[in-house]
Amino acid sequence: MSKPLLRFAPSPNGHLHLGHALSALVTWNAAQSLGGITLLRIEDIDQSRCKPEFTQAIFDDLTWLGLTWPEPVLIQSERFDLYAEAANRLRAMDLIYPCFCSRTEIAEASTSVDPDGAPLYPGTCRHLSNATRIARLERGDPVQFRLDTEAALARTGMLTFTVIGPTLHDRPQIRHARPERWGDVVLQRKDTPTSYHLSVVVDDAAQHITHVTRGRDLEAATDIHVLLQMLLGLPTPFYHFHRLLLGDDGQKLAKSKGSQSLSDLRALGWTPDDVRRAVGF
C-alpha cells in the first residue's frame, strides 16, 4: 500500500497565527503517527486578497516551526483550467445554473441561514427560463454559478463519510452528509472559475489525499465536499476535525480580526517550542 497522504492548505491572504500553527502541527503529527507524508498546498484562488509575500511568509513560518514537505508545492492559482473543467462536467449534468441575485436581494428573500450563519439562498434564479438566463448573460449582468443541490442529491442519494478521531487511531465513525442544509452553494464566480468547495475536492483527488485534518469550523462544509466528490467520481478521504484556538473574546483566531501572527511572536522572542506549548503540543 502507498503511504497515507495528508495536506496543509493555507491561504496567503495574511500572516499565519497560532490557530494555523495548531492546524499544521495536528496535520504533521497525524502524518507521522500514520507513517505518512504531509503535502503543502497554497490555496490562493482569491487573487484580490492573496499576495506573494504572504506565500513566502507561510514557507518561512512553517520552516521556523521545523516542518518539512515534498516539492513542488501545489499552487491553486496555476490550476484554474482544471477547476473550470470540473465545473463544466457538472454543467453537462445540468447541475449548475447562473444566479444574478445580489447579497442584499438574497438577505431580503432568505428565511433561514446556512451552517455558517449566512442567509440561505432561496433558489430564486433556479427557476429562471433558459431564454432569460441567456439574455442576462449576454447583457453582461453580474453573475455567479450555483450548484442545484436538490437535483444533485437526486442523483447521488444518501451520502456518508468516515470521521477518525480524536487521535486518528480511534474507532472510525460513519456520518451522514447533509448538503441540503447549505442550499445551492456558489461554485463559480464571473471573475473566478472556481470556489473553495470545488477546488479543494479537485486537488485532494489530484494529490491522492487519504486523510483530511481540518478545524471544526469547516466540519459542516464537508457535506458539500462529499457531494461534489460523488458527482465527479472522486474518492472521499477520511476526515478528522480538530479543536479551535479561541481568543479572549471567545471567538476563533482569525487573520481578519488581526490575531497576532507567528512572525510577530517570533520578533518578540518566541521559539518554536513556545508555540507548541501555547497550542497544546
Write down the domain tally.
2
User: Which assembly state applies to the chains in this document?
Assistant: single chain
Q: What's the main sheet like?
A: 3 strands, parallel
Uncertain runs: none
Q: Which sequence of strands runs across the widest sheet?
A: 1-2-3
CATH class descriptor name of the largest domain? Alpha Beta
Q: Helicity level, as a percent range?
A: 25-40%
Report how far the terminal alpha carbons are from each other: 30 Å
H/E element order: EHEHEHEHHEHEEEHEHEHH
Shape from CA axes? Answer: globular
Keywords:
single chain; 281 residues; alpha/beta; Rossmann fold; Glutamyl-tRNA Synthetase, domain 3; 2 domains; three-stranded parallel β-sheet; three-stranded antiparallel β-sheet; globular
Describe the structure.
Helices cover 37% and strands 15% of the residues. It is α/β, with parallel strands linked by helices and 281 residues long. It folds into 2 domains: 114 residues, HUPs (Rossmann fold), CATH 3.40.50; 122 residues, Glutamyl-tRNA Synthetase, domain 3 (Alpha-Beta Complex), CATH 3.90.800.10. The protein has a 3-stranded parallel beta sheet with strand order 1-2-3. A 3-stranded antiparallel beta sheet has the order 4-5-8. The protein has a two-stranded antiparallel ribbon with strand order 6-7. It is globular, with a radius of gyration of 20 Å. 32% of the residues are buried. The mean pLDDT is 95.
Outline of the structure:
Belongs to the class-I aminoacyl-tRNA synthetase family. This protein has ten helices and ten strands.
